[in-house]
Amino acid sequence: MSFAIIQTGGKQYKVSASEILKIERLKESVGKTVEFKKILLLNNDKETEIGTPTIEGAKVEAKILKNGKNKTILVFKKRRRKNSRKKFGHRQQISLIKIMKIFSKNGKLIAEAKDLNKEKSQKAIPEKKEMAEKKKAEVPKQEKTKTKKKPLSKSKK
Questions:
Q1: CA nearest neighbour of 93 among 30, 27, 19, 34
Q2: For 85, left (φ over 0), alpha (ψ -120 to 50), or beta?
Q3: Is the separation of the CB atoms in 91 and 69 below 8 Å?
Q4: Would you give the end-to-end CA distance of the chain in angstroms?
């Protein structure tokens, strides 16, 4: 299984094709393709390449799925015996990305994400129609019978 170690937002991430990551927010909009050129290490099944500090010419392509905020982190500060407390929260801006392709330094494609959504959607449409037809054929219409319920009578004594 091939992977790469990239650097973005001051952090390093080990990524492989078709992986989904939360990273520091990127300026690009949703649906755009971004390239990460700070590749620190590349590994395909046969060989490993280590950068000094980065590998020139290597890149990783990713697609931005969502821009949003991460979970809330509560920050609580207290000074003992001073009757002083502060409580507030922080939500870090993040981007959700999917790794699409990993390229080596000479431009050779090492790994590519398989797009399962397209395959599933193409297969799912005929299957749904077939399933609906089978259900109609199997289940006959049931006649509804109306039964009147007798009201409860309260007897006074």
A1: 27
A2: beta
A3: yes
A4: 85
The 10s digit of each residue's pLDDT in 45-93 is: 888 999 999 999 999 999 999 999 999 999 999 999 999 999 999 999 9
The strand pairing partners of 62, in sequence order, are 34, 99
Token representation of residue 31: 């649906």
Q: What is the pLDDT of residue 20?
A: 95
Predicted pLDDT at 45: 85
Q: What's the rounded Cα separation, in Å, for the pair 153 and 145?
A: 24
* Overall size of the chain counted in residues: 157
Distance CA 83, CA 79 (A): 7
What's the pLDDT tens digit per position in 91-115?
Answer: 999 999 999 999 998 889 999 988 7
Distance CA 86, CA 79 (A): 9
User: How far is it, in rounded angstroms, from Cα 42 to Cα 49?
Assistant: 5
The phi and psi torsions of 58 (rounded to 5 degrees) equal -80, 150
